[in-house]
Protein: Pyrroline-5-carboxylate reductase
Organism: Thermophilibacter provencensis
Amino acid sequence: MSSELNISVGIIGGGSMGGSIARGLVDSGLLPAARVLVADSDAEKRAAIAKTGMRVLADAPSLAAEEPDVVILAVKPQVLGDVMGQVAARLAGRCVISIAAGVSVATIEAALPGARVVRVMPNLPVQVRSGATAVTGGASATADDVSLACELFSALGSVAVMREDQLDVSGAVVGTAPAFFSLFVDALTRAAVLRGLPAASARELVETTMRGCAEQLLNEGVHPREYMERVTSPGGTTAAALRELEPALMDGTYAAVDAALARTRELAGR
Ligand SMILES: NC(=O)C1=CN([C@@H]2O[C@H](COP(=O)(O)OP(=O)(O)OC[C@H]3O[C@@H](n4cnc5c(N)ncnc54)[C@H](OP(=O)(O)O)[C@@H]3O)[C@@H](O)[C@H]2O)C=CC1
Ligand SMILES: O=C(O)[C@@H]1CCC=N1
């Protein structure tokens, strides 16, 4: 457990990421539920979040009026401009952390005059405190603001401070990777079912395998290529399989990351 911070955090947007961050911060012990405020326009999401003891508000202006010490912007990039317009006057002089893909620090600073802006790019496993978050401070942010953002997201997994252009790349890889990973789990499970395994067993075996491999890679610090070699018996089944999979997966992954990066720039109007 992390030691408790004596601040309040307001999160605008309590969806997949905002909700995960809120839960992660409370579960980590960094903040008591009563000092996490979440605004979401969806009543069902508000009801689910309220059950955890966090404070819920129906819109961004109501949250900003509570003057939380730090505000995390966790709505979609497409609505962020509107939301910032609704709360700009209240956020002057405050530390604001945006998780919106693509939207640049300069855009946020222009929309929120006087706010101290930090941009971060987390991923979904922040909810189970195994996330990975890239952090970049704007010209308006102090070193303390960047440190605070790092402290909040360190309670939810690993954190790396980097330049803003690198944060976009990190988002295209690390932000989207939970979906890539799930797609691979699903593909393996379907391949097993196609070749005759019962669906429930296939899924359990594949998911257990994924957890075991992740644990070994992390715990032993072994390079992925070396780990692959351990599995690949000369003249065996894995070598035959990798000859098929490797070119397709490599090309597909590079193309997928480039597509995510292109969409990041498109969302930012760049
Ligand atoms: N999902 C992910 O893995 C990651 C997402 N991000 C970024 O996080 C942000 C949120 O994404 P994600 O969580 O996936 O999106 P979601 O749609 O799940 O969450 C956004 C939430 O904000 C609510 N909302 C919309 N407008 C307002 C408003 N004016 N005031 C308050 N709440 C509002 C939405 O309600 P409603 O559904 O009713 O519109 C929704 O519940 C995006 O900017 C994305 O780029 C970053 C890293 C990873
Ligand atoms: O799909 C998206 O746009 C968000 C950003 C990174 C992961 N999910």
User: Anything to note?
Assistant: Residues 12-18, 39-42, 45, 59-60, 74-77, 79, 83, 99-101, 121-124, 175 surround NDP (ligand 1) (CB under 6 Å).
